[in-house]
Amino acid sequence: MKILFVFNFCFFFFGWCREVIDEYGKEVVKLCERLLRVLSLNLGLKEEFLQNAFGGKEIGACMRVNFYPKCPQPELTLGLSSHSDPGGMTLLLPEHQVTGLQVRKANSWITVKPAPHAFIVNIGDQIQVLSNAMYKSVEHRVVVNSGKERISMAFFYNPKSDIPIEPAKELVTPDRPPLYLPMTFDQYRLFIRTRGPQGKSQVDSLKSPR
User: What are the GO MF terms of this UniProt record (predicted)?
Assistant: First the structure.
């Protein structure tokens, strides 16, 4: 399994930090594998179902460090516009002293207050498709702070890029037909890039016609 690490700051390329980041990457991969087992069992599926649907051990993963500078007029900008993560699952290691992540609940934005020594876990669009929308991906955005800078580290755990992703047959019934047509992760990424950030409308637009 190959993991691509993407960094926003050049100091992360120094050798003394590479070893730490490499070890961190291996541990969060293990955590994602455990979470997929739990999510599979909670759907009434075999515990390896979601991992196998992702491609077994040949998954795709990357890590990104985000830096949000302070802004004197935060109401005039966003650190990151509204979206749901296109992949499978995101583990976010947030800045505990400065809030910034917000999730949509109905028509309101709720600020997430990080708990010390804890990750924030976002379900992505691919798990929504695989679960036939029994799990929902999380629409979220990032706001900036007027007085403090903020750093967060996001680890993206994604399906293998060329495997068709579709609702699990075990979760399809006459009363709950498949909501989505098959599409590979590569095809989906290309699809959303042509549309740009549009909240959760990308995954919703994949719904198959009734």
Answer: L-ascorbic acid binding; metal ion binding; oxidoreductase activity
pLDDT tens readout for residues 63-90: 988 888 888 887 777 777 888 999 999 9
pLDDT digits (tens, 9 = 90+) for 80-134: 788 899 999 999 998 888 888 999 998 899 999 988 889 999 999 999 999 999 9
Q: Is residue 210 part of a domain?
A: no
- The structural domain count of the chain equals 1
Using CB atoms within 10 Å of the CB of residue 94, give its burial: 0 to 12 exposed, 13 to 18 middle, 19+ buried. Answer: buried
Residue 208 resides in a domain: no
Distances from the Cα of 210 to the Cαs of 162, 176, 207, in angstroms?
A: 26, 11, 9
> Whole-angstrom Cα distance, residue 154 to residue 145?
19
Q: Which domain holds residue 78?
A: 2-203
